[in-house]
Amino acid sequence: MARGVAEACRILGVDRDQVKSWAYTFRDYLSSSATPKSGQPRQFTDADLFVLMHVAMQWESNPDIESIRISLNCEEHLDNDLYRRILYAHTPILQEPPEDLDETWRSGVFLNGGGVDEYLTLARSYRDTADALLDTALKSHEPRDWAYPVLFAYRHTLELYLKVIGHIQELTHSLQRCVELVEKRLGKRIGTPIREWIIEFDSIDPGGTTFRYADDPAGTLSYAEYWVDFHHLKHAMGLVFQAMDEACIRG
Questions:
Q1: CB atoms < 10 A from the CB of 159, how many?
Q2: Is the pTM of this model over 0.85?
Q3: Which of 76, 166, 248, 249 has the smallest set of CB atoms within 10 Å of its CB?
Q4: Are 21 and 54 in contact (CB under 8 A)?
Q5: In the chain, what percentage of residues exceed pLDDT 90?
Q6: Both 129 and 236 in a single domain?
Q7: Domain assignment present for 98
Q8: Which domain, by its residues, includes 44?
Q9: pLDDT digits (tens, 9 = 90+) for 29-74
Q10: Count of domains for the chain
Q11: What are the DSSP calls for 93-133, one per residue?
């Protein structure tokens, strides 16, 4: 993320003249945008600000410039948790895309109005998330703490898959309704036990809100009790999504 001089001043807690002075003195450690040609705006990258934070931390009334340079050469400013926390405290979650953003950037995601490339891609992303959450829950030996996120992710995955298979445009979150529309399009009933497992989710969460809130009155959890074995859930969802992937391939 690129920041101007004013933002750099707020982060570093110094005035513009001090920032410009540091940028000149330690220009060998900064990007070209932080030391631009005359008439061009000065822009600091995150890496630039880590350098300047390190300088600020070492700065005294009679600073030892050479000592600061040595510590920068040793890259003591990199991977510094304190500097990163300071920077993140002044960083919005939704940022302007970097100018050099490409497929090599692996630390985040590029969001735009188009969403994911395909609806099916989104369904599979939620499936991967649900699987990862479930595996973590089992490893934690405290699956109760993970239950609602796991069940929400699987339930939403089911809805997305059904809407892909059934080409469903109707605004509904009902899995029962989605099943009916899929069966109407395919001209046949979804097989056992896959259909029953899907309908089970609908019976306790008919509107897609039961696992989003702790006290949703729409589902049956407010007056019924159930046991969900996570090993069985993983097995069942694996079979369900395997069948759904095959249905997507057949079109």
A1: 23
A2: no
A3: 249
A4: no
A5: 73
A6: yes
A7: no
A8: 5-89
A9: 999 999 998 889 999 999 999 999 999 999 998 999 999 999 999 9
A10: 2
A11: SS-PPPTT--TT--SS----TT-SS-HHHHHHHHHHHHHHH
